[in-house]
Design a protein that fits this description.
The protein is α+β, with helices and mostly antiparallel strands. The protein has 14 helices and 23 strands.
Length: about 575
Amino acid sequence: MPAIIGAIAKTVGKQILKKAASETAGLVTGKPRGSGGGSSKWIAAGLVILVVLVGAVVAVVASLVSTFAGVGAAAAYQCQPGTAGGMEPVTNGKGLADIPAVALDTYIKAAQKTGLDWAVLAGIGGTESNHGRHGGATLAANGDVRPKVIGIALGFGDSDNGKWDGDTSDDRAVGPMQFIPTTWKSMGQDGNGDGVKDPHNMYDAILAAAHYLKVSGAPGNYRKALWSYNHSDVYYSKVMAKADTYRKAAAQANLDPAASAAPDSTGTNVPAAGTATGGTATTKWIMPLQEGVYTISSGFGYRVHPITGVRKLHNGLDFAAPAGTPIMAIGDGTVVRNYFQPGGYGNAVFIDHGNGIVTHYGHMLEKSPLTVGQKVTASTLVGKVGSTGGSTGNHLHLTVMQNGTGIDPAKFLADAGNAVPGDAVSGDTGTSSNCNDPAAGGNYPPSTGDGAWGGYQNGRIPTPALCPIAFAPNQRLRCDAAKAVEAMNVAYKAAFGHNMVITDSYRDYAGQVDCRRRKGNVCAVPGTSNHGWALALDLGDGINNFGSATHKWMQANAGKFGWLHPGWAQAGGSKPEPWHWQFGVTN
């Protein structure tokens, strides 16, 4: 299931300029990965393969255009007449059999020129466009892709006078990597040395995508580079799995396609044994407290702060335990900070584990015996559980930072093979104990115009990440939104004697495309609808009529449950829709 990714910054003017990666809208594969959020986002058909990978966009540009067709090849792009060419697939190596010889050559040459891993480039190419063959396209010996792959109109005007997309009125994503013309202007490369930077040429497009990845952090950290385009564990895992398959196949066939560092499962290059990268290379992660002495009192995610009463991100994991309980370093590393923060961490220690991982241990009973610069190993005593700083009881607050961004410690430790309580892991599927509690805010950041959440793309949210609505089980929403509407329905039923009538809820990308075709501007541009974030409902039972008793009830009561009627949908708004209501999303 190839995906399409798009990116555009919140306003059309900033979208493409914000980051070259944001413009690589999506893959040629036919299914949109979507990443934009509110009504200001456009759908950019996407930067296929690599580019996408590199920046799957969107997360990076968070508001952007998500894109490109998820209704199959024909709906996703137009093919222009051209001469067919092509090469036979490589047969020397089982895992390489599906890679056309010319495609493999483009990956190898791009890797040699940029220092990236050829297998990762191949993984992206295979995931996003079947190595340039999406929709029946073929590759000529010089790398030209025919028929040309051209995406849907993006809706923000023309920038290339139709040079690459044949459209003088609007830009379209182009080529096997689905570059937006403006991005190609700044990132385009001449990979086959013919003097032309052509997005419809595999050599040129792959080299450009490789440069895009490099700007985003590769080869030092492939995870960071790929997540800058597509903040999705599923996508990242899929690409890396393919890369591993290709790499092993090459080894079995005694091939050494390119001398470039191979990333490990974390996305960072594997250092030589015993070496460190910015710290000590950790091979084993452990729990910070002994099993059986603690309970998880608060997980990673958004919550109402127990002291301030303000809803904010809890950037860590709390281990409630008796005062004085020993705290251990969860991995090898170097102490980089030992300090006291009144009203915050209290007595705290920071340890740099290398490869971008830094851990924080807070609220300790007393100052840690460790010194800055001291080398520690997994299980080294860091301190003792306490309740110093901004704390309501004895506990350890553990934060795990990856390249400067807080990640879920429970998931991090669980992925390392530790026995972590199931309710401590929030993940991306809305399974945390807080997720289903709308009063607590769940594990989702507040949405104010941008409904993006969980690292998913608009209209591309997997079913397990959504919750069915109890009184309308065929309808699904983000779990906190589902619980909120269920609570609202209780009050509604008390007032009118029956359940609310839901006519539409989560709408996948293909559904958005279909809606736009059938209803025109009544439906949002595909990839930008809040239905695609599973945060919107269309309601009946009179709510769909301004002035009705049920609509007036909604106006008076929906806000109590986190639901609102956006200004544009209200009577007198730019697009009056009495039936459309959104959960915590104002745009």
